[in-house]
Amino acid sequence: MTRPSEDKQPHDHIPKPSSSSLSFWSSSLNLVLFLVIPLVLFLLLVSIFVPDPSSLSPFSSNFPWTFRHLLPHSFPSSSSRIQESTSTVNGSSSIFNESSTDSSFVSNGSISDAFTEKETVQLVPKHNESEEIDVTKSSAKRDHVKRYSKLEKVEVKLAKARSSIKQAALVRNFTSIHQDPDYVPHGLIYRNPNAFHRSYLEMEKLFKIYVYPEGEPPIFHNGPCRSIYSSEGRFIHELEKGKFYTTHDPDEALVYFLPFSVVMLVHFLYEPQIAFNTDAIGRTVADYIDVISTKYPYWNRSLGGDHFMLSCHDWGPRVSSYVPNLYDKSIRVLCNANTSEGFNPAKDASFPEINLLTGEVEGLLGGPSPSRRSILAFFAGRLHGYIRFLLLNEWKHKQDPDVQVFDQLPKGVSYMTKLKNSRFCLCPSGYEVASPRIVEAIYAECVPVLISDNYVPPFSDVLNWNAFSVQIAVKDIPNIKKILMGISQRQYLRMQMRVKQVQRHFVVNATPKRYDVFHMINHSIWLRRLNIHVQDFDH
User: Fold this and answer.
1) Fewer Cβ atoms within 10 Å of its own Cβ: the N or the C terminal residue of the chain?
2) What pTM was estimated for this model as a whole?
3) Helices assigned H by DSSP within 184-229
């Protein structure tokens, strides 16, 4: 019998299966039912509950899940992390950024061990033996990852200090909770005693200043230690002695001091025949910045942000304007702390103007008790600016025994005696906002009365000036007596007691003592350095 042609339809001829055929299909059916179908179901379940096999690659961010919890926050893939660490050391990127410095590491208290070799290696998954051997054998690469620049190490310490100060600021006690053998800040003279104390202690541990050696006296590395500008000279002198805060290693410094004296620049370079022409002074400062920015990497690294200048001369702000980054970015420590003339309290520090005729404070400190002070308010000074004009014009000729205002004291009358016999001492601005009378009043334990516009008092980020001084608006000069008479005896006694307490922060000591004016100026600079984050992209 011939087979049916292949072009016939299937239903034309259906042969009956033989017994052997039935046996074959029966076993096949069993195979499908008992082997294939369970296998398919198993694969289906695996595909649902297990990630794509490609996700198990060491280059996948999903491998393995437990590594996500080794550090406080999620990280990118393992290989990219190692790349980031290596490139950081090479200077092509930075470990730090403005957000992570304080939040990711500081808030979790892991600054000291956040960048250790151990953690970096833990984050490399052991995918196979060859990869594990590569990680183990590449000791040079691990050493490279461990080497962070000195600047990065400094910034880690600063981040930890910032965190410590922030935590201390949460304690709103009137007395610091930190122990101190010399002095524990307390009372309403401070905005936050605990935060200030913590910050001061951190400064003592970490603060380092590098003084550029370029330049020669008298214009550089020098300043007057007697006169109305004495605070400038005394500060420069103490830094030059090198007993406090200074370092000879610029790589470990937190800030860099530009040791030019505006007072000396004016004395030697100003040409009085060309009124108010400061170009020669400005060019000298610009040339100096050019020298140190060419010789050292630190100015260009921060655009001057971690550098500071210091001036008690009225022309300090004007001189700094000849170098835009000095004016806009550097820390300017100025007696002329006038916000209407560009003084920025976030980066600039107010410098107390102290007139030391002999260079010492001997005989200036202290005074009679409040009950022996017979004068309500006192001022003596020449006509110097429009505020003093208004004050003298209003009170000089009244000859009021309570409010005694003079442009020149009568012969034989002692200025210091008047200060120490007054309850309130008037401190009006002159041509510029600063006045040495503020510190004179504090020395004489006389409550200072600040009469100024746009003035930021010294150390006002730490001190609560409302607690120990009176601030009178220029427009209220005619109402001085009314305002001061309105202060109750009880309130005056409190304020006078606080003046005595705050005095320690303004005293000039032959050898600086903790918490005195030298250390407080440094603390103001320290706080401004805490406000910035410097990154080194060329390391």
Assistant:
1) N
2) 0.73
3) 193-206
